[in-house]
Amino acid sequence: MSDFLPQDLPRLRTIATYLQRQLREVERQIDQAERWKASRAAAARPAAAPEWTPQMDVGADPRPVAVHHGDCNVGGRRRRPITRRDAIEALTHGVEACVLCQPDRELQILD
Ligand SMILES: [Zn+2]
What we know:
Elements: H1 9-44, E1 52-56, E2 64-69, H2 84-92, E3 96-97, H3 103-106
Parallel strand pairs: 2-3
Antiparallel strand pairs: 1-2
The protein binds zinc ion.
Zinc ion binds at residues 68-69, 72, 74, 98, 100-101.
């Protein structure tokens, strides 16, 4: 028998009920802390680079002047993500392939 627990059944059941509620509360707090930690980890991950980006002309008629691989830094902020299909279409319709990242090689577009 325990030295610090009461001996009578009603008080033992009351203590057991209290401890079960406390355990549920601790488990709820653990779940909440794990969800918070997972959301922080997801927010800390950098966004994946887009696969393909066109470099746009800075003139009055913004049109694509080059296609880049998504992680290529040439072209600065005048780029936006496009699909693989759009990249192929741009390259086959006269838009230049970047000479550094060479998206035409990966897309297997030959001259
Ligand atoms: Zn490039």
